[in-house]
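During the no-cost extension, the postdoctoral fellow (Dr. R.K.) reprocessed legacy sequence entries with the updated structure-token encoder. One reprocessed record is reproduced below for audit purposes.
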Amino acid sequence: MARAAVLREVGRPLSVESIRIDRPGPREVLIRTAACGLCRSDLHFIDGAFPHPMPTVPGHEASGVVEAVGDGVVSVKPGDHVVTFLTVFCGACEYCVSGRPSLCTSPATRRPADASARLSLADGAPLAPFLNLSAFAEAMLVHENACVAIDPAMPLDRAALLGCAVITGAGSVFNDSRLTAGESIAVIGAGGIGLAAINAARIAGAGIILALDPAPEKRELAMRMGATHAIDPGSDDIARQVVKLTGGGVHYAIEAVGRPATAELAWNILRRGGTATILGMIAPGQSVSLPGPTFLTGRKIQGSLLGSSRFPIDLPRLVRMYLDGLLDLDTMVSERITLDQVNDGFDRLRRGDGARSVVVFA
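Re-encoded structure tokens follow.
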């Protein structure tokens, strides 16, 4: 048995209760959870913007220590410190072998339909797996390709952020944009993902790093993370301001909010030939509208999932960046809370308070 935060109904607080966790099957790993960040992506499902089977245990930005492994596991062993990630990959499909494991959808990473559930309620009723992880629990049972072993010198409360916010934001710079030194970038939204993108842009040597966020405290955080300018995007002429400030627009724009208006803003502040990367989860039924003639400027717009990362390669590199003093995760952690405080943490996230709340397990 393990304590977990269970989502039973959309729009209702999570209930902290005991759940059952099965033994590791073939290629499965049992992880004692150390920490899990509260991500706005969780809120999309908790508040009903995106559908999900229930009951379920949310949470997907986590770290922990391997307790046991099933048959055939070769990538990790008991005692390893690991970071998990939601886009588990099979390693054999078209996307995996072409270097795009974040796009893998192979059913080979899931248990067969006739197998017992990985997680269940105390009465034995199965719990729907949440983004392959269900990390708001004292333990996780995952496929081995949903976690990567990391240097044990890495603090696990900060390592958790690597599993979603940081690998997404940093990946949007290193992998999706491939920004080179001296180029300009604008990041729309200075939450966890946006702050990670700003920090990565500083590491990559960007010349101008614009942070666009309506909250003064978020703009202050963005400056601490490496932004050269922090702007309130609320004015009607914000696109004109950015174009003037950058001498024609930015080379890259990163959208980390998940709204049509901010995706359109990312497009409108690009210079000729620039690229906009949309990281935010735009809800079903919403669309982005772009003026047709602007495609003649050679601009590009693209989506991204977890920063198009190659997890076994990129996660250890991010750990090394932190240990070497390049990657700033300390500034991103606004509070450490217990599992019993998870609903309060999500209320603060709804209000836009702080950067990242992290549930720390004993």
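Residues 156-177 form the longest helix (22 residues). The chain has a mean pLDDT of 96. The remaining legacy entries will be reprocessed before the final report is submitted.
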